[in-house]
Amino acid sequence: MKKLIKLIVAVMIVSMMTSPAAFAKSDNAKESLVAVGDSIPFGFNLGQTNKNPAKTSYPYLIGKLSDLRVRNLGVPGWQSDQLLSTLQSDQKYRQALIHSDYVTVTIGSNDLLAILREAAAESGGNQLLFQQLLQQKLATSDVFSNIAQTLAEIRSLTDSPIVLYNVYNPFQLTDPLHYVADPILLQINAAFAGLAFSTPGVYLADADAAFGNNQAIYVLPGDIHPTVAGQAKLAEIGLQAFGLY
Predict the structure, then answer these.
(1) Model confidence, pTM
(2) CATH number of the CATH domain containing 117
(3) How many domains does the chain have?
(4) Is 31 exposed, middle or buried (0-12, 13-18, 19+ CB in 10 A)?
């Protein structure tokens, strides 16, 4: 009887060792992608509700294409100071980054949209005054300082590669704001490039160039957020920036 029990145990062990399931990589064993930022990585307006990040958002697409476990920590409406403050104080975020293998950062669009709206409201339709106010507000804004500190904070927690997304033009070609935003984005995205190139292990994903003038394809109509195709494009340039594509 004892010999039979030993034989059964031996067969079970061999079966487990040779079973394909025994070699399957568990979700917890996968490398981790952590996405921080605003409503863009969240995938706002792509799901039936906006209670949880959309599975069609670019972090999940990167994860699917590269077999990465994804922590999507994007929060709709966040500006750069909110992300920075949270990274400095919230242990959930800090622990996620400590255990990350890849990190994406998408932040600043809401700061810049707020500046644009303030300048438009205060200028009263005067284009020259609008441009002057816009430059003044950009010059005194903390957005780029906040992003620089955010990148430094993330770097203090992990040596994982970081991909920083710049800002695409969210306005359709039929919207006059599209042509107002274009020259402003040249200046803004030059600052994003400077932030990426001045921080070790940070790589730029050029969302502005990737979207170009294809807002009809990549931006939801009557909205400023990416379509499913837009999210796929963001995933593509993120993979390229990481060297995973």
Answers:
(1) 0.87
(2) 3.40.50.1110
(3) 1
(4) middle
Range of the domain at 198: 31-242
Burial environment of residue 109 by CB neighbours within 10 A (0 to 12, 13 to 18, 19 or more): buried
Domain-embedded: residue 158: yes
Give the CA dihedral 118, 77, 231, 209, nearest 10 degrees: 30
**Residue 212 corresponds to which amino acid?**
G
Residue 225 lies in a domain: yes
pLDDT tens per residue across all 245 residues of the chain: 444 444 333 333 333 343 443 333 445 678 999 999 999 999 999 987 999 999 999 999 999 999 999 999 999 999 999 999 999 999 999 999 999 999 999 999 999 999 999 999 999 989 999 999 999 999 999 999 999 999 999 999 999 999 999 999 999 999 999 999 999 999 999 999 999 999 999 999 999 999 999 999 999 999 999 999 999 999 999 999 999 97
